[in-house]
Design a protein that fits this description.
With 214 residues, the chain is an alpha+beta fold. Helix content is 52%, strand content 8%. The chain has a 4-stranded mixed β-sheet, sandwiched between helices.
Amino acid sequence: MAGGGAARGPIEFYFDPISPYGYLATTQIDAIAERHGREVDWKPVLLGVTVMKVMGLPPLMQTPLKKDYVAHDKNRMARLLGVPMVDRPHGLAPGINSLAACRAFLWLKQADPSLAKRFAKRICARLWAEGGDITAAEAVADEAAALGADRDAVRTAIESPEMKAALKAAVEAAVAKGVFGVPTFIVDGEAIWGVDRLWMVEHWLRHGTWARQR
């Protein structure tokens, strides 16, 4: 792991729109980075791969005991952060996934990372703040078009072999870096997992060490 004297590169932010905690992180990480003069490199990952396939674990909302905790915790965390969160006590409906959204994000990022970031925030908000769905390519293209992107081009990109391969490569790269859940932040080589650890991200950005500050 790099120390505080490492090059001050961007914060790597790994997110999946289907995670409520990932959504909450999308509302916070840029402001934290800006306070410390850093950029944020947003990187999509699929929990269906990292959690279910690589780790062999069920989704949080299908895990006994833990699902009841998460159903309450995500809402109180949203209140603490002052952001909207729809109440989904039983989790997402079966079949909801972020494949189209993540492919569209990568396509937009190639030409305009800032636009891609705004799109990711809209997609996450559509699911977790508005209670909508993000599975259909048409819905994803609509959100991109609302930001000025070419709707038809986004729709085509979602189904293109190039973007399917790009997302697969992005997920594999995340796994190779040890990313297993979202949100994950990598700051100067330090991996930090969880929206409840944003204070650790800020501590590192401020001090460049884990030593307790007086």
